[in-house]
Design goal:
With 407 residues, the chain is an alpha/beta fold. The protein contains 15 helices and 16 strands. It has two domains: 210 residues, TIM Barrel (Alpha-Beta Barrel), CATH 3.20.20; 92 residues, no CATH class. The radius of gyration is 21 Å and the shape is globular.
Length: 407
């Protein structure tokens, strides 16, 4: 069968680090690479021309949100994710699993028992009068039920349904349905969730391979296991043995556990397939991820922070609304070559924020995304040049020693 993805490793660096290329039907991704997050088929506040100017190689959209609005049928009608958003390069979609479990818990208690387009029994229960909190997400052997924040309708997602939705959206790389857990969960629950993730991964793969979309969309399996070394390695062994095109490393990480959990997994996963670290984007974490064998990363942090006026610089983070920047006519980061830094001053962008002009968050989002995308590109170049460790020491020495406004 025709494979929708190829991965070549060109250079190996210290630890498990490597530089390579992921080849997709819509172009190549030079790795390691940071993938911009376009949750609802848009990187908030930025056009695709801006993304290209920044140097973004690929965009990740959110399956859960596109399923909820406008719906996968309409996405397909609009020509799929690439045509819909006007992005011609590589794309990814997550499975929707993270949002089912993280967003579902925040909704109200008056839950309908009607499942949209499903005949199976509802999983969500009405709140018991004596209950201390509502049961808003219910998980069983087959899938998960959750309440829509838009209309209150109950939705039931199975591994097969998640893949069906992602097939309709049409990204180059999609992910198996999984259960993301908090690092604070007990080991007993982590074990239960891990077994479920493995079953769902197998079902996701079987359904995917039964469909013609498998010839043009690559499917990544997701490794879970929390902060437990035995569970992480067990998950990497189980998922790694399945015929996925690549792998995602999932879960909510404790800061102190990130590098160890990633290393445990990547020491076990097949070397010749790409590895994506889900939801990680801080500079320190990106260095750890690259050094411990990850190839791609995604995170909303650069644009989310930018919208709220927090900016990355080589000397640490700054917050542009601080009074000291009101008359500062230097660039956001004197060492940055992004559009915002080439053309505007801190004083002007501070003025935009205080005036609630939308250009302010746009310029800060451009800067932050440029900073992170090109930081990872510089890591790739350092791997190629054999200078990764010295580059890491130099960058983090300055970044962590800087006068971070947020410390």
């Amino acid at each position: 069968m025709k494979k929708p993805l190829a991965f070549d490793i060109h250079t190996k660096g210290p630890g498990l680090a490597r530089a390579g290329v992921i080849r997709t039907p819509h172009g190549d991704i030079a790795t390691p690479a940071f993938i911009a997050v376009g949750t609802k088929a848009a990187v908030r506040g930025l056009t695709v021309d801006m993304l290209r100017d920044i140097g973004v190689e690929a965009v990740l959209a959110n399956t859960y949100h596109l399923y909820m609005q406008p719906g996968e049928a309409l996405v397909r009608t609009m020509g799929g994710l690439h045509e819909m958003m006007g992005w011609k390069g590589p794309t990814m979609t997550d499975s929707g699993g993270f949002q089912v479990f993280s967003l579902g818990a925040g909704y109200g208690t008056n839950v309908s028992k009607i499942l949209k387009d499903m005949t199976v029994r509802p999983l969500l229960k009405e709140r018991d009068e004596e209950a201390t909190k509502p049961r808003l997400v219910e998980i069983d052997h087959d899938g998960a039920a959750f309440k829509s924040p838009l209309d209150g309708i109950i939705h039931y997602i199975t591994p097969e349904r998640s893949i069906e939705i992602q097939h309709a959206i049409g990204a180059d790389i999609i992910f198996a349905f999984d259960e993301c857990t908090s690092p604070s969960e007990s080991k007993a629950y982590q074990r239960e969730a891990l077994d479920r993730t493995h079953r769902w991964g197998k079902r996701s793969l079987e359904y995917h391979l039964s469909r013609p979309e498998s010839e043009r969309q690559a499917l990544f399996g997701i490794v879970q296991g929390g902060r437990y070394e035995d569970l992480r390695k067990e998950s990497a062994t189980a998922i790694g043995a399945m015929d996925f095109d690549g792998f995602g490393i999932g879960g909510s990480f404790d800061k102190q556990d990130l590098h160890t959990a990633v290393r445990w997994v990547n020491e076990v996963l097949p070397e010749g397939k790409p590895r994506h670290l889900l939801g990680i984007g801080e500079p320190e974490d990106l260095f750890l991820g690259v050094e411990n064998g990850c190839d791609t990363f995604d995170c909303v942090a650069p644009t989310r922070l930018g919208r709220h006026g927090t900016l990355y610089t080589k000397d640490g983070k700054i917050h542009i609304s601080n009074t000291k920047y009101s008359a500062d006519i230097s660039p956001l980061d004197p060492d940055c070559d992004c559009y915002a830094c080439r053309n505007y001053t801190r004083a002007y962008i501070a003025h935009l924020y205080k005036s609630r002009e939308m250009l302010g968050p746009m310029l800060c989002s451009i800067h932050n995304l440029y900073f992170i995308v090109n930081l990872v590109k510089n890591m790739r170049q350092a791997l190629t040049d054999g200078t990764f460790l010295s580059y890491k020491k130099e960058f983090l020495g300055r970044y962590q020693a800087g006068k971070d406004d947020l410390k």
